[in-house]
Structures are given as C-alpha cells and as structure tokens.
C-alpha cells in the first residue's frame, strides 16, 4: 500500500515536470480567476501592464472587413496568452460600431463608443471616440471603441442612450464582456457566467477594482480565452478581438498575423482606373498645393451606387478604411519628410471590387526655410585719406 502511494506521488511529479517542460513557466504578469463580484460570478483575466513583458494588442478577422472568423481559428493564428471579444458588429454587413486601430493603423472608423487606447509605452487610457478621431489616434498602437461606459474615475456611469446606444440587446439582460483598468495600470478582461444588466456589470467591475471600465459586445459574441482554454465560448464567428501576450518574443512571432489579410492585400490593387475617376471626391486640399502640420481631407461620394468602403493610402501605404460618407480624414504630415507626397483614396463595392480612385499630390513643408546669410558689405577704399580723417574726427576725445 505504501509502495503504491509512493508510485502515485512519483507519477504525479513526473506529469507536473512534463507539463512544465511543455508549457513553460506561467508568468505572473497575466493570470486568471473566477470570482464573485457584487453578486455576479465572473471570469477575470488580469494583465499587469506595468510588467515589461506584458503586451496588449488588437486583432481583426481574416478577410476583414468582409468576413468574420471563428474563435478557434483566431487563437490558432495569433497564439495569445489570453483574448477577449471586441466591439459590436452587424450580423449581416459585419460593420463595426466603433473605431479599430491595429498595430498603429486605423483600419475602421465607426460612429459610437468610448475607446480603450493603448499607447506605444503600454499605458491604457479611455478616450472619447471623437477626440481620438480628431487626432487620427496618433500615439496609440491599439484602439478598440465599444461601450457604453460603466465606470469613469471610479464612479459608476451607465447612460447608454445618452451615448447613442439604443439596441435592446445592449440595454437588456445579456451575457456580458467588459474591459477595466485599475489605478495601478492593470487591465481587466471580464466575462459573466450568466446574464446581467449594464448596472449590475458596472457594480461588478467596480468591486473588481476597476477605476475605468467599458462594456464590450456580449450575448453570443461574449468570449474569453486563457492559456489553452476557452473560459467563455462564443456562439458565433467574430470580427475583432483584444489579445494579451506575456512575452514580447511571442508577440513578435505572430505580429504580422494581426492585421487583416484582405486589408493588407489591398496594396495589390488594380491600376486600370485613371486618376480622378468618377464616384469619389477629395476636398479640403488642392492638388499641387504646399501643406504642413495636420491637414483635413473630406472624402465624399459623387453619384456612386453600391459603394461600401474607401481605403486611404499615404504614399502607397494603407492608413485607414472609411465606411461612412462624407468622412473627414486628419492627415498628420509631421510624420513625413519635407517634399512631394501623395494621398490616394480608393472606393470598393460590397464584393471588394475597386470602383473608383482619386489622388492628391502635394508638397509637404514642416521645417522652416534656412535663414539666408547676410550679404557682405565691402567699403570703398579711402581717397586721399579724407575718410580716415573724418572717422578720427568723429571718434576723437569727448565724442565717444
């Protein structure tokens, strides 16, 4: 009996050793727990953003913005330590409600919400969508706009209708997902195990220590993953996520998979449309003009039917997707070298076919022109010593 017990202990130790070798150490910067908070049972992934190895990013589905992707496919592709579903999207058209920035690139402009915005230094901030839109989300590497707000500056603030949310699925009881940030810069990824109201969710987030919090898409979209296991499994394919990594090396290996493939592939676009083709207009900047600082370009349609997306390129590199018209694009030229540059807008239909193209070619000037050197003045030679005598007379004693 004693030998049997020792054998079981040895077996358990062997299993633990193999698991440690295969899975590697569980880093303290990202952890999971299931707890009760203000009467709610919730799944919570905590990511300590103060730990240098912790990284939080956004990701979009394969073929975005034209298709959704299963949760399992996303996990296999991106291999995160943890993940939660992102913002709302339409079941038929897959259009997002809020903005989405992936790897510093705004790839979707929505119309509602408050953003979780992560700086290049890893700080998490909650930013009003319109404020971020005005700055082009400059300085933020990852942004997802959702809502409504739950907690701001430690106070429960639940006013969805004032923020423009009217969908009964958002306002009623549902399975919930939420994001929160504590005063000590810990990010909370939370899903409920049962249905809850927004008010109940706000109380639960506050009990967890959130100083700021927003609601995410919920219901069948609610999803939470942690180290090989789906803690909350979604009931549908999704279009966007927030991912957590506990190692910069892990993120570096999959970073190229975060930007949607269809969006990246738009760089290989048709050249058959002549410049200025009908259907798309750019205004606010004249072609051939000299600009500097932040220039605002209004992107509009001209009798174009079936238009769905316009992709904005700066010098051939895609910058953002516009899905409502007219739309204003803030072009921050301070990031560019002085000289000629091009801004191009390309219009696509619902099937992803290029329908129109328009371009502006400008000269950027942000650096001041160098000061011209003062011309040297050469005095004429004195004639017969008269100039020297006159100078001596003016500067003699008593005339200094």
Low-confidence stretches are 9-25, 264-277, 383-400
Can you tell me the number of structural domains? 2
Sheet with most strands: 7 strands, antiparallel
Total helical segments: 8
Give a description of the structure:
- The chain has 400 residues and is an alpha+beta fold.
- It folds into 2 domains: 26-258, no CATH class; 280-364, Immunoglobulins (Immunoglobulin-like, Sandwich), CATH 2.60.40.
- The chain has 8 helices and 25 strands.
- A hairpin with a 2-residue loop joins strand 15 and strand 16.
- The longest helix is centred in the first third of the chain and has 22 residues, at 2-23.
- The chain starts with a helix and ends in a 6-residue tail after the last helix.
- Mean pLDDT is 82; it is low at 9-25, 264-277 and 383-400.
Briefly summarize what is shown.
Strand 7 and strand 8 form a beta hairpin. The chain contains eight helices and 25 strands.
Core attributes:
Immunoglobulin-like, 400 residues, 2 domains, disordered C terminus, 7-stranded antiparallel beta sheet, alpha+beta, 25 strands, 5-stranded antiparallel beta sheet, 8 helices
